[in-house]
Amino acid sequence: MKAVRFFGHKDVRVVNDIERPVPKGDEVLLKIGGAGVCHSDLHIIDEGTVVGTVFTLGHENAGWIEEIGENVEGYKKGDAVLVYGPWGCGHCKSCQQSKENYCDHQSEQAYGGGLGLDGGMADYMLVPSSRFLVPIYDLDPVIAAPLTDAALTPYSAIKRSLHKLMADEYVVVIGVGGLGHVALQILREISGAEIIACDVTQDKLAFAKELGAAYVINSKDADAAEQIQKITGIKKAKVVLDFVGATSTIDLGTKVVSLDGDLTIVGLGGGHYQYSMNGLPFGVSMTNPYWGSRTELMEVVGLARQKKIHIEIEKHKLDEANEVYDRMRQGKIKGRAVLIP
Q1: pTM of the complete model beyond 0.85
Q2: What confidence score (pLDDT) does residue 110 get?
Q3: Domains of the chain (ranges plus CATH)?
Q4: Is the pLDDT of residue 112 over 80?
């Protein structure tokens, strides 16, 4: 079968000679409908965050069950499903609470398909346990694949702060990319706070307006923080969601977050923050959430089936993987790219 394989630093190849896996026990073989292309892939490819192993890329995956192991119950051939991305041990307290993204044994094992183990940028994908599957019912797997990260990650980050996102508050979203454009839709649907969106291009800012942002600010402007504070007034923004994570965006967030607010850094931009006593308003929680729980992914599927969220996608063939990664490096992907076998 065909697959997009990672062989080492900046070495990604499309190969055609991978043997199709055969599931056993609780394993499930999935016929891939779509595999999302995530900026996290570039951290693996360009920065070597996963070393010493060769594997198939792709951690945002959806498709149809092709074959099941002898111990699988509740699923049959042809069922449309998502693959929950972070694969924990299944036994620790976090895993038992459906939060395998915070598995106690994360540091001791490869952390999921496309993240050290074989992922879904292939004709077929072997999923090691049926507990990693989430039914999508009438959703198209091609459209649904990015829900597993591009929607789940912002959804989980927003839920952490949902009790603060009241109608008399402001929320700032920095970065209207693959995750940020979905965050705007989620905020529009489940929170009452007024949304301020920040990005560096006019087309992204116009896109943010379409998706429900009440205000848009170009974060390249030297006075971006002052522009935001003119909107929020002295109270500032109760929640800041940074989907970039660069030093400049973290710095912007610290200037506009309110007392007892949440500064949530989701993006993996490699930024730094030098803590000082007067650097943050009192009571601020600075967090760096990772993905979300399996039950939250089920909730995300519910939002998508109700047509309350929609991921803007570009469709590409597996053979175009390297071209897609190049366009991502250049910031030319609108929404999410999806590879289709």
Answers
A1: yes
A2: 59
A3: 3-148+292-340 (3.90.180.10), 152-287 (3.40.50.720)
A4: yes
